[in-house]
Structures are given as structure tokens and as C-alpha cells.
Amino acid sequence: MLDLYKALIFQDKDISTIAQTNLITYFSYELLKPFQAVGLEQTEHFNTWETKHFYTAYQLNESNNLVFYFKLKVVDDRFVVDYLPLLTVNIEEMSIEVNDTHVRTLISLWYCDKFLSRSQLSLFNQDINELFKYFKEQGFEVQPSLLDNTQALSLKLISDFPINQTVLDRIFITTMENTDYDFEWLGGEKYQVQLNQEQTITIERHENETELFIDSNHRRRSILDFATSYPFLVPLFVQRSK
Q: Which of the 8 DSSP states describes residue 105?
């Protein structure tokens, strides 16, 4: 199937639009096979699939690579969210790239907008990592990303907004109320939050941005797992819309 896809899509073979559409649909289904475990079904739209937890749509980009868009099912049907272009399947290089910007968007949809629940993010993260595992089995290289829960977090993040004193004070109060946590001033505008299992997050405030370093102490987890485990830290890397 992969060889046929490369031959017909990348070598500009003269095939009908219907034949090309059917090929891409079938190929996308093969790529999404792990989602059968969560009820993968095609919707009335030829390029959109539905599972118990989310919708996923696909389209070719200008390089003829497949981009998968995801939309999680909201907690209230009155809410409307957009599809997020999350995964790009580079067929020629046999690699998978994650758009980490939209991983932060998912966190914001949960924490700031209340459109999603913590359990939804956890389930989605599990489903996506099953997909990553399948991609690797098929010979794809999955690029490092904020969604990967097979690696420890030793991660530098830059938030493009300054952290105000109110947010910092709330974090300080939370850590003082929990015997598993601690809060340490490192001098200047630099602080460290010590979490359970010897995990830490270091905060360095700047005028127009905030520099963060997350260390999970060799514990394998994604940023979604980290965020939902420590929601009081989420304002450090996502900001409510004004």
C-alpha cells in the first residue's frame, strides 16, 4: 500500500480524481488502524473519521503529505471548537511530525475555556501514543514532541507572555499547602517548584516572556500528562484569552 501510494501520488501518475480520493481514504484508514480500538468509523464526509473520543480529518498539503486534523468531542454540545492540524505524515522521509503549538491549544481548551475535561486529554494522549507506537512498527520515525509519553520530560519551554505576580503567588500558596511540594526562590526573577517524585519546574521571569524548564526526574510522561497532574502550574504556559 505504501509503495502504491508513493507511486501514484508522488510521481504524478495520471489517475482519476475518484481513484486518487479512494486511494488516499484507504491509505489514511491503514494509518489510523489503532483507533479501531476506540470505535473508528468513517463519517458522511469522505475525509473525516470518528471515534468515541474525537474526530480526525485528513488532507494533502502542498508537498503531498498527509496532514491529520483532530477535534476532541466537547463536554457541552453548545461549544464549538475547530479542527487542529496536529500530525503531518511525511511519506517520502517516512517521518511523523507533531505540531506542538496545537498541543498547547488542547491544554488551553481544557484549562482556560472549559470545553474539554482532564479525562478527555488523558484518553486522547493514550490514543495518540498507541498511534505513535503503530507508526514506529510500520517503519516511520516519530519526531520528538510534547505528546510523547515514552520519554522523560527534560524540557525547556518559552511562554510568549510574562507571568504576573498573582499567578506566582497562587503557585506559592498551593505548594505551601501541600507537603509533597515546595517553592524556592533562586535569586533575581528565578524560582523553582519542587513536586512529588523529585520532579521540578524552574521559572525564570522576563519582561515579555517566561522561560520554563520541566524535569520529570526520568519519569516518562507527556506535557498533557504533566499539565493535568499539576493544573495549578498550567497558567505558566497557557494564558486565558483577553
A: H
For 130, list phi and psi in degrees, rounded to 5.
-65, -35
The span from the CA of 85 to the CA of 98, in Å, is 9
Give dist(CA 34, CA 48) in Å, integer. 16
List strands edge to edge, sheet with 182-187.
152-159, 210-220, 200-205, 190-194, 182-187
Four-residue CA torsion sign, 236, 117, 72, 92: positive
50 beta partners: 41, 55
H helical segments located in 82-146: 100-111, 118-137
How many other CB atoms are there within 10 angstroms of residue 5's CB atom?
Answer: 18
CA distance 151 to 119: 21
Alpha-carbon distances of 217 from 82, 155, 156, 183, 227, rounded to whole Å = 35, 11, 14, 17, 16
Entry pTM: 0.89
In tens digits, the chain (242 residues) has pLDDT values of 666 666 656 555 666 677 777 788 888 899 999 999 999 999 998 899 999 999 999 998 888 889 999 999 998 888 889 999 999 999 889 999 999 999 999 999 999 999 999 999 999 999 999 999 999 999 999 999 999 999 999 999 999 999 999 999 999 999 999 999 999 999 999 999 999 999 999 999 999 999 999 999 999 999 999 999 999 999 999 987 65
